[in-house]
Amino acid sequence: QSELRTKLLEAFSNAEGEFVSGQKISEYIGCSRTAVWKHIEELRKDGYELEAVRRLGYRITKKPNKISSNEIQIGLKTKTLGRHVHFEETVTSTQKIAQTLAGNGAPEGTIVVADQQTNGRGRMAREWYSPSGTGIWMSLIIRPNIPVHSTPQLTLLTAVAIVQAIEELTPVKPDIKWPNDILINGKKVVGILTELQAEADQVHSVIIGTGINVNQKVEDFPEELQQIATSIGIETGKHWERALFIQTILLKFEGLYSLYLSQGFHPIKLLWEGYAISLNKKMVARTLNGSVEGKAIGIDHNGVLLIETSDGSIKEIYSADIEL
Ligand code: BT5
């Protein structure tokens, strides 16, 4: 049944919005014209809107506001990323599931996606607000052969991939705030959480969690977030299809990741600097060991933030919250 559904959606996806005749569909999925009609009715029940025109056939005019493995995989143009999708409607945290899958040998490129998280996490055990039907709550498992101390670079690479995807699909121009925030008009639209499974100096897996606010309205955010958070929908006044964002992000990530593995961090660093708002500005970096005040002069070859303090010395910041 679900295989047939995949085939049917694939037939529509291949047609890229044009009509597909009942005959073609029945050939593609290998069933009778009557069965095609039944499957189309089932799509309608699941929230798809379809136009049916005599002699031309069917086309999808609106997809349901849902993500699923099918929605993510049909039309996906990557080679390895997202080829294994673990989707659940509701989870505690996609990071937790990805940790378990990674520990059990899940292949590189596996993604865990949920419609809703009941215990979404930020850095340092902070909460990540992840309501149903609105955002992308996704964890990606990769297995790069890099030293442990280079892994923060992957947070920066992820941020570049997401900004590029947002720029490709929407008219907005997001900024990156070191290390893991993407902002639109000064408000946080994306948070990234990079976690590791590693020993001594060998990385087994890197689990990159991304939380992307896509279709929330202002009133959908809890009061304490309304001033500091935003969504792509709020900034563009439009509703966006989450699966398309996931596909675009994975494709951008795959391109940057292969560049990174073949040429190192340098080309990624240059791209990142083009989007960063946290450079050459006065700032306070709040770390677990206290605050550092000064001017951010850049990131080093590992992705570490360099702050020049008033006495002229340069401090390396590995992890912090930045106040501009
Ligand atoms: C982050 O932490 O920004 C990383 C967020 C990563 C979330 C993803 S979702 C998929 C995967 N599964 C998980 O469980 N997590 C990852 P941090 O820099 O510590 O920022 C956390 C702070 O952002 C919170 O303390 C709030 O102030 C704010 N915040 C919480 N939810 C938000 C939201 N939906 N949009 C914008 N800001 C939010």
UniProtKB/TrEMBL annotation:
Domain of life from the UniProt record: Bacteria
The keyword DNA-binding belongs to this UniProt entry's keyword annotation: yes
Entry-linked SUPFAM superfamilies: C-terminal domain of transcriptional repressors, Class II aaRS and biotin synthetases, Winged helix' DNA-binding domain
Coiled coil: none
Positions bound to biotin: 117, 121-123, 188
Keyword Magnesium assigned: no
UniProt KW keywords: ATP-binding, Biotin, DNA-binding, Ligase, Nucleotide-binding, Repressor, Transcription, Transcription regulation
Positions of the BPL/LPL catalytic domain: 70-261
MF terms in GO: biotin--[biotin carboxyl-carrier protein] ligase activity
EC numbers for this chain: 6.3.4.15
Pfam family name, one: BPL_LplA_LipB
Class of the enzyme per the UniProt entry, highest EC level: ligase
Reactions mediated catalytically: biotin + L-lysyl-[protein] + ATP = N(6)-biotinyl-L-lysyl-[protein] + AMP + diphosphate + H(+)
PROSITE patterns reported for this sequence: BPL_LPL_CATALYTIC (PS51733)
DNA-binding region of this protein: 22-41
PANTHER family: BIOTIN PROTEIN LIGASE, BIOTIN--PROTEIN LIGASE
Entry function: Acts both as a biotin--[acetyl-CoA-carboxylase] ligase and a repressor.
Family, similarity comment: Belongs to the biotin--protein ligase family.
Entry protein name: Bifunctional ligase/repressor BirA
Gene that specifies this protein: birA
